[in-house]
Amino acid sequence: MKTCSVCQRSYSTNFANCPQDGTPLAESEEWAAGTVVRGKYQIIQKIGQGAMGTVYKALHLQFQEVRALKVIAAKLSSDKTFVKRFEQEAILARKLQHPNAVRVDDIDETEDGQPFIVMEYIEGENLRKVISATGPMPPMRVSAIIRQVAAGLRRWMRRMRWESFTGTSSRRTLC
Q: Which of 140, 143, 160 minimizes the C-alpha distance to 98?
């Protein structure tokens, strides 16, 4: 992907200059704060990165709502099997719809073909960082976290069981 240093919009690697203002585009694997993806998501900051991709905090420019964008690493975007699994993750997660699971809003591709998932952004602390900073948690707090995770997983399992039993996802209330 290439980015314009003036308007912060991102473009396919096929472009040499920004179509908006003629500025030469700079190639980048990471999205800098201010970069506009697909003309509608303005990157606020990078919030996480792993071997398979990066997650960014972004602002949906029309809705003025904060979202999380999970983008596949450039080196994996040509792996058709991986991309298919990534898309399936988004589709299945969107069907979940539970208060203890992040909501998926959309799946899209960057201007140069890197798939990304648009999700609700949930403000909070990373559990691994909390444990590292404070040490072991009190049993009551651990129990509360486990109950919340279990509730989301229970919903997920009921959803998957229903779909495999009926071959459809039309059931509305599962819990």
A: 160
Residue 37 and residue 10 in contact, taking contact as beta carbons nearer than 8 Å: yes
Token pair of 33 as six digits: 């704060």
Edge-to-edge order in the sheet of strand 10-11: 10-11, 2-3, 26-27
Structure tokens at 148: 């919340």
pLDDT at 2 over 90: no
In this prediction the pTM is 0.73
Cβ atoms of 147 and 155 closer than 8 Å: no
Model pLDDT for residues 113-131, shown as the tens digit of each residue: 889 999 999 998 888 888 8
Question: 116 and 164: one domain?
Answer: no
- Do residues 43 and 99 share a domain? yes
Pair 31, 46: CB distance under 8 Å: yes
In the block, residue with structure tokens 């399936």: 88
Residue 129, domain extent: 125-175
Tokens of 65: 């709502």
